[in-house]
Amino acid sequence: MAKKDMAAILDSFEVDAAKKHDSKVADALGDAAPASEARATSLVSMTKSDKERLTAVARAHGLSLSAFFRLAADEYIANHEW
After folding, report:
1. How many Cα atoms within 13 Å fall on the side-chain side of residue 55?
2. Count of other CB atoms within 10 angstroms of residue 66
3. Residues 20, 25, 28, 32: what is their CA dihedral angle, to the nearest 10 degrees?
4. Residue closest to 22 by CA, chosen among 55, 72, 66
5. Which of 5, 45, 64, 65 is such that its CA lies 20 to 30 A from the CA of 52?
6. 64 touches 23 (CB < 8 A)
7. What would the pLDDT profile of 70-81 be if each residue is shown by its tens digit?
8. 82 in the same domain as 46
9. Are 25 and 53 in a shared domain?
């Protein structure tokens, strides 16, 4: 299998996992966000060791790396009065 094809499969898996997780979080929090809300993708550049470390932290808390980044950004904004 070509490297590009594997990346597309993994990206699709990540999106599906993030949607399922976000749906469970929304249900738990009573979030009224519409299920049809469109998703967007951003790229974050980091070293392989940073990705491994941050992924381990995210997984330890039951989060995908994407969900972890969204949570971290929201927390940073709230705690630094941005």
Report:
1. 8
2. 19
3. -90
4. 66
5. 5
6. no
7. 999 999 999 998
8. yes
9. no
